[in-house]
Amino acid sequence: MKGWMGKFRALFILGVLALVLTGCGKENLTAFVPKGYGAESSMKLIILSIVVMTFVFLSVMIIYTIVLFRFREKKGQEDYIPKQVEGNKTLETIWTVIPIILVFVLAIPTVIATFDLADVSGAAEEGAISVDVTGNQYWWHFEYQGEEIQTSQDMYIPVGEKVYLNMISSDVIHSFWVPTIAGKMDVNVENTNQMYIEAYEEGVYWGKCAELCGPSHSLMDFKVVAVSPEEYEQWVADMQSVDPEEEPQDAVAVEGKELFEANNCMTCHAIGSTGSNVAPNLTNFGNRTKVAGFMEMTPENLADWIQDPEKFKPGNNMTGTYPDVSKEDAEKIAEYLMQLKHTEITPDVAGN
Amino acid sequence: MSIAATQKRSFSAILWDYLTTVDHKKVAHLYLFGGGFFFLLGGLEALIIRIQLIKPMNDFISAGFYNEMFTMHGTTMIFLAAMPLILALMNAAMPLQIGARDVAFPFLNALGVWLFIFGGILLNMSWFLGGAPDAGWTSYVPLATDSATHGVDFYVLGLQIAGAGTLMSGINFLATIINMRAPGMTYMRMPLFTWTTFITSVLILFAFPALTIGLFLLMFDRMFGSAFFNAALGGNAIIWEHLFWIFGHPEVYILILPIFGIFSEIFATFSKKRLFGYTAMVFATMLIAFLGFMVWAHHMFTVGLGAMANSIFAVATMAIAVPTGIKIFNWLATMWGGSIKINSAMLWSLGFIPTFTIGGMTGVMLGSAVADYQYHDTYFVVAHFHYVIVGGTVFGIFAGLHYWWPKMFGRILNETLGKWTFWVFFFGFHFTFFVQHFLGLMGMPRRYWVFLNDQELDLGNFISTIGAFLMGVGVIMFLWNVIATAVKGEKAEADPWDGRTLEWSIPSPPPFYNFKQVPLVRGLDALWIEKTEGNKQMTPGEPLDDIHMPNGSILPFIMSLGFFIAGIGFIYQVDHKLWYIVLYGGMALALGTMVVRSLKDDLGFYVKKEELEREAK
User: Fold this and answer.
1) A278 within domain boundaries
2) In this structure, are residues A92 and B284 in contact, taking their beta carbons and an 8 Å threshold?
3) Staple A172 to which of A323, B143, B318, B416, CB 3.0 to 4.6 Å?
4) Is-contact A214 B142, C-beta < 8 A?
5) ipTM over 0.95
6) pLDDT in tens, B392-429
7) Is A132 exposed, middle or buried (0-12, 13-18, 19+ CB in 10 A)?
8) How many domains would you assign to chain A?
9) Helix, strand, or coil (residue B128)
């Protein structure tokens, strides 16, 4: 049994090594480097609780180590019978009272932060930005209250301002999570949940669905694009002046538009702020960060997606709702959609 | 049962013996074999999950199949592996610890184990009948009500049947501990494992009905057109979450409290000291159990219950750390000043302390509601509950098996293999799960079929998968140990560990009536007291007399079979009305068996005094 501690030390070193190697995670995805109000509140509590708990862990491990070194059965003393101790009032009081104090140290800031993050009274103030968020299998819809703007998958917000979200689901429970900006909140079926997010820096932040919602749960990504307040205002103005009927410039795209209409894509997809929203709104589609939330934004990927969405997002609701599209036609539709660029305010502006 | 004795009997005789047994020791064997089988199955599912996540965008298994895989991994491990294995140890040790000849209701005990086995089989049949449940072990609606295959129906009926068995066992243990303690064994002289079994049974009694109701409502919604959880028709999906966690949180204490009992026995025995702060330990257990019912909504911090509810549940959750801390320090104090002997049982117990302390730390961290907005439903939570359920429950089951194996089977598990198993499993475990804390905060939600390229999650997941295979190797080594021990293991004496409690005062394995004469208990650690006074054995608490024992019965098996058949009928009657025949047939079989059981007098039999005297010579 020699080397017991050696083995433990080896384990510890390996653990630390693993941590260093993996780093803190990808920028604008990881919760370790908060760049928003909610994420920062959470991080403060995470650090506080780690400090408190490390103190507890070390106390346990120090006693544990001493016990294992000092009180092992000695050779030749196998028949030694230790004193049968019943207990010790002082000691037992100490290790009851100290944890109670530690719990208070952690509980008070937790309660304060909980009430702070739940305070959405600012949504009623003049000029506050409110966005109605709808979770769907497997995409996100955003409707800007009072602005007549609808979009899907990429949500634009101004930096340094609280944006209030009213969230509800159209099918099963989802959970809205942008780790670098804010902790998550569930998107329920029967009630609207309210939260707010505030980004400190411009950037394109990764959003994830965090409640199991079906086969493609892991592919239900979205983005929050934080831009400067001026850029945001321009984005709002541009989005409000979208003409859904606008004819594209080149011939291929014109053909694509015709095919888009011929295949009744508008039954589900809308361009502009009116029309159906049972499927992702395609306004400003050409400026999207990803195809279907997670694939690289190329015409090839989009054409492949149009031909067979099931292959990429199992269980999605687009599959089988339209007749087969030939490769050629899919490419033309893709060309049309990629040209739907309704504003200069793109993810690149936010520093993507 | 010793191997030598079984070799003389034919296979069919042994089979019949086990099918009809009402002996708590053989029921324990059945729970162990059943639970062990499902543990291997759940482990296999875990390995498939980890292979899928070994690299980004892997396509080892499809998205839908992956969801079935983790749903069944969780459901199997909780309901069909951890629970039965704990019930195996309770059945094996608790009646002996209180000096009883069996549990209060031996027939009910047998019924419990067969309901578990048939429930487990029913649930797993879904793999071959169109697909396993795929809505997670928590089976949140509307995902579960919308699920297209019969998978969730198998989940509902399988768990309903297995859960009924567990509820019966809980009631049975309560009656046993209240009524059947040997003379002199007051409540505050009971071994701590008996205490934790008692408190766990109270938890089962109050927690399982919430599950039963939840499952019934889900069953009505899925099979009979009701809309309890359908928001569009005026129902409410959040109610399911409440019902599930009102059961689900006490359930995790059902999984860990008996394990605390096991460790308390092992630390005392192998430190040769009485348990430090026995009274505090008992009351800490009660307090954990009580608070365990007050904290279910910490699984629902992100549901949007509001700041007030979240704050109350956050503070209540953190409060549980206090009694748990008391326990950890009392175990350390038990060892302090002792003469510690490290064998396999003790290694698992020593491995438990740092591991479970980490699990407890992350538990308190999760209790901080605002911090939980980040942890919730990520790999941080996955890491946390594996640290407590594997680092606590599974380590404890291994420790308990090494400790009581001699009493259960009359042979001692191989020590060398035992230690190897521990080290391989221990390292594999920390490799698998430590890194997952970080994966979670780096932005990896749980139940993700794939993680994307370029998200810096590759290395952590890879390490995790390697660790999982090490754990698999550890489990195979334990199996090897079991087989090697059965073939040519060292025969165990009555008291191989210099034990302190009553189970070590009778032969290994014990005769079917356990105690020839019920012992007289003179204090805590009854056997130890006699040893310190130089007595070779317990003082009898009664004169030698005829022993009344129950008859074996096949009825529990048939009754469970009836419910199993009826379950199949329930699942398929939505497809075709003819399945009602199966439903009613199964129910008729089960209820008919109950009528037979009620009307037919079975007064058991007596082991004659003369016979016992003859055996003594």
Assistant:
1) yes
2) no
3) B143
4) no
5) no
6) 999 999 999 999 999 999 999 999 999 999 999 999 99
7) middle
8) 2
9) helix
Q: Which residues of chain B have pLDDT under 70?
A: 1-8, 616-617
Write out chain B residues lying below 8 Å of A82, CB-based. Answer: 271-273, 337-339
**CB nearest A86 (choices: B62, B272, B274):** B274
Give B200 to chain A, closest Cα distance, Å: 23
Residue A170 domain-assigned (yes or no): no
What is the SS3 assignment for B607?
strand
Residues of B in contact with A99 (CB under 8 A): 321-322, 325-326
Taking CA atoms, what residue in A is nearest to B350? A64
A224: tokens are 């929050």
The number of beta carbons lying within 10 Å of the beta carbon of residue B576 is 8
The terminus-to-terminus CA distance of chain B in angstroms comes to 21
Smallest CA-to-CA distance from B183 within B523, B545, B507, B410 is with B523
Dig out the tokens for A56 from the structure: 């507890």
* Residue B284 Cα to chain centre, angstroms: 21
CATH superfamily of B3-553+602-616: Cytochrome c oxidase-like, subunit I domain (1.20.210.10)
Which among B547, B491, B492 is positioned nearest to B518, based on CA atoms?
A: B547
Closest CA to A266 of A251, A254, A277: A277
Range(s) of the domain holding residue A317: 251-338
Which residues of chain B have a CB within 8 Å of the CB of A96?
Answer: 322, 325-326
Give the list of residues 6+ apart from residue B10 with CB closer than 8 angstroms, or none. none
CA B93/CA B195 separation, integer angstroms: 12
Domain ranges across chain B: 3-553+602-616
Q: Do B135 and A212 touch (CB under 8 A)?
A: yes
| Residue found by looking up tokens 């501990």 in the block | B177
Residue A264 lies in a domain: yes
- Distance from the Cα of A271 to chain B's closest Cα (Å) equals 28
Q: Is residue B556 classed as helix, strand or coil in its secondary structure? A: helix
The shortest CB-CB distance from A87 to any of B64, B277, B439 is to: B277
Among A61, A106, A218, the residue with its CB nearest the CB of B449 is A218
CATH code, domain carrying A301: 2.60.40.420
Task: Please report, for the domain that includes residue A65, its CATH number.
Answer: 1.10.287.90
Owner of token pair 């209250």: A145
* The residue type at B112: G
Chains A and B form CB pairs within 8 A to the count of 312
What local confidence, expressed as pLDDT, does residue A4 receive?
56
Closest CA to B397 of B108, B116, B92: B92
Q: What is the dihedral of CA B141, B147, B153, B156, to 10 degrees?
A: -20
Q: Find the radius of gyration of the CA atoms of chain B.
A: 24
Which residues of chain A make contact with B231, given a CB cutoff of 8 A? 189-190
A95·B325 Cβ contact <8 A: yes
What number of other Cβ atoms are within 10 A of residue A202's Cβ?
Answer: 18
Tell me if B423 and A7 make a contact (CB, 8 A cut-off).
Answer: yes
Report, in angstroms and rounded to the nearest whole number, the Rg of chain A calculated over CA atoms. Answer: 27
Tokens 């199992």 correspond to: A314
In a domain, A62, yes or no: yes
Query: Residues A151-196: pLDDT tens digits?
Result: 999 999 999 999 999 999 999 999 999 999 999 999 999 999 999 9
Task: State the pLDDT at residue B357.
Answer: 96
